[in-house]
Amino acid sequence: MSRPARFLKSLERLLGLVLCLAAAPAFALAEAAQPLLRVGVVLLPPYAMRDNRTQALKGANVEVMNRIAARLKLPLAWQTFPDLASLEAAAKAGEIDAAPGLVQTPAGLALWLYSEPYFRIPHKVVGPKGTKGSVDLEQLPLSDRVALPAHDALVKFITDNYPVLRREPVATERIGLRRLIAGSAEYAIADEAELNILMREPEFSGLAIVGDTGYTQLLRIASRKDRPELNALIDRALAGVPPPELDVIYARWIRPPYPRLADSTRFWARIALLFLLLFVAATIVGLWQKRQRQALEDKLAATRHELDARAAAGEALQLTQFSVDHSTVGILWVNWDSRIRYANRAAESMLGFKGGALLGQPLAELQPELDMDRWLGLWKQVRAEALVGFETDCRHADGHWLPVDVSLSHLRFGDTEYLVAFLTDETEKRRARAALEESEARLAGIAANVPGLVFRLERAGAAADARLAFLSEASLALVGYPATQLLDHARGLAALVHPDDLADYEKSWRAALVSQDNWQWQGRIRTRAGSVRWADLKASARRFDDGRVVWDGILWDISANKESELGLADSRAQLRELSAHLESVREEEKARIAREVHDELGQVLTVLKLETSMCEFAHAEHDAALAARLHTMKKLIDQTFAIVRDVATALRPPILDAGIGSAIEWQARRFEARTQIPVLVSVPETPVKLSDAKAVGLFRILQEALTNVLRHADAHTVVMRLAVAADNLVLTVADDGRGFAPDTARAGFGLVGIRERAMMLGGTLAIESTPGEGTTLTLTVPLDPPEGDPP
After folding, report:
1. Fold of 326-425
2. Exposure winner among 41, 259, 562, 719, fewest CB in 10 A?
3. Residues in domain Histidine kinase (predicted)?
């Protein structure tokens, strides 16, 4: 409501209050002249009815009026009427002063002054008692029929708010409930006052309230229009009645006295909880008994194992001695004085000595550098560190030097201490090492001449970490770091990656690591001087039978090409942002124009229709020609109303305010009514929260898709689905029309516009079509983050 309109309404209320205060003395004089307040009621249970025994009036409206009369200290003179028409005729004749329980209507405003509402009578949805959950009229299938009583206000409310509801008109609520019992309707609609009477009858005992229509009938007290002071007094007396008293009257006469559907489940819920507690207790006892039995079985098994271990100890000792004697590793037991006390066959064979020839020999005979001083130092070191290893050369029996790997370990046997030396022939290992060093030198020479950074990553096994094993010296020219410095760095190549691209780098590397496949990445790196360069990394993976994986790759500098590519991408992004901005401005302008057309022109048409109705009410019955013209004018105003709604809806459909799911269903029904092409719609039961820009963009894409179906598809059926997948909203529009070949067909402006809108929304568009088999358009748009989450 505009500011001038609010000011006029406030001024009107103030003037009414002044008139009421000024008229109070006059009404007091009228009371002295006429001490009775004549009240008329329509005999309609449970609002007003006669007691068969006392013939006195009773009912909800009678009790409310008695309380008002008590506050006004006026006796009441009751008059009863069979219907509303006879009551209004009596009011016109001046036979009654007030009438409770009336509904304010435009026609009644010419006869009555109405009080504030004292009862709000809701209209409920009735169904079988076995119905699960609450019924929502908006979500009922098209096949479900609803019996609707022929009350003008109720029918208009249901028609405006549930246009797709399958309505079955009935004369009264009783007929509607009987149709529900007979199966000719799935649900019925009735107000609570009527249900208070009907639900007490055995015929309707199998029914229950299963939902709410949202429509509420307001009951008021009407008083004569020529007595505004009476209306003011009734309003004040009604305001003085405590709300709890009105609630008691409402509960006694109007609210249906039967339980809701959920009340009957409490007993069974308690029974289920008792059985659950018994089951848990039985489970705990069973687990405790099982644990006790398992403990006894474990003790018995341990005892048997100990007996078996003792029986096998002697055999194990013999097998150990045999294994040591025949081991491929040479084993020497050396005393503190460096003399050999034991040598196995492998040690004697490795050093070329006959059996027993090494016993008693000092180690200096095999390695002259192991004199007594160095041996005692090794003795202390091994006792402190438990294990010491090194490589050396030992003199063979024939005089040549044999390369061996020596591992020393401390051993206490009885009261004597020894150092055990494990000897391994290193001849072949040294040859392989020399060949490897030569190969690495050759690889380093080749890699140094490649115009890029050559590297190798090695992974010893599935559970091991990958390490940087090789890096060419080209790193100095490319990033300013020598290869040795990057090899020693804990992060390796990741130390060069720009912080903004590090997450993408690690993601691509983890994918290659898990799949053990080739690795490819493109992003920014930082040189030692601080400059930023674009690099392209490609590495091929090789897998070995022992579980090792090796990645050999190269890192190229692609800064020049990438800068050109990014410049082109920025230009396209700016064009797309400009297009999105223009589209947003267009939608905002459409919404503004739609609001102005609906609000401004709608208010003018409403006032014009009201004035025409008042003119018809005042003069039509005296002039038939004028009545016809006024009737024609009202039709033209209604047509203009429809045109205004259509224009406002075309500019910015108000159904978008109810959610994108409701908007899609509304658009489908309009398309179906306009083209006679059946449309099957599937939307989520829970409303999808979208920003206004995304909702409008998604709705425009749907409109363009349906336009393409109408113009080009020649379809018989259209299927629309809206679904939530992970963090995305997916809209699918499929038809069974003629289809086309996407690879060869030239995209029209419609598909180009749809694709551009999808990119503006940050989504993707997929089109699947085959000639003669129809077309499927799938749009995926990211959902808005929940409130409180970072964007």
Report:
1. Beta-Lactamase (3.30.450)
2. 259
3. 592-785
Greatest alpha-carbon span in the chain: 152
Query: Quick check: 93 and 79 in contact, CB under 8 A?
Result: no
Q: Which residues contact 757 (CB under 8 A, 6 or more apart)?
A: 583, 697, 700, 701, 704
Helix 692-708 × helix 559-596 angle, to 10°: 90
C-alpha dist (Å) from residue 378 to 381, 415, 424: 5, 20, 19
Task: Flag whether the pTM goes above 0.70.
Answer: no
What's the token pair of residue 456? 């190798």
Would you call 341 exposed, middle or buried from its count of C-beta atoms within 10 A (0-12, 13-18, 19+)? middle
Instruction: Look at the domain 656-782 and name its fold.
Output: Heat Shock Protein 90 (3.30.565)
pLDDT beneath 70, residues of the chain: 1-35, 257-268, 270, 313-314, 316-318, 320-321, 325, 386, 443-451, 490, 563-602, 645-646, 648-656, 743-750, 786-791
- Taking the C-alpha atoms of residue 205 and residue 200, their distance in angstroms, rounded to an integer, is 7
CATH homologous superfamily, domain 430-557: PAS domain (3.30.450.20)
Rg of the chain (C-alpha set): 48
Other CB atoms within a 10 A radius of the CB of residue 28 amount to: 11
pLDDT value for 117: 94
Check residue 321 and give its pLDDT: 67
E strand or H helix at 507, and its extent?
Answer: helix 502-515
Residue 159 near residue 213, CB atoms below 8 Å:
no
Q: Assess contact for 472 and 455: CB atoms under 8 A.
A: yes
113-154, pLDDT tens digit by residue?
999 999 999 999 999 987 777 888 888 888 899 999 988 888
Q: What is the pLDDT of residue 656?
A: 67
Q: Which pLDDT does position 267 carry in this prediction?
A: 52
Enclosing H/E stretch for 574: helix 559-596
Sign of CA dihedral 41, 42, 45, 47: negative
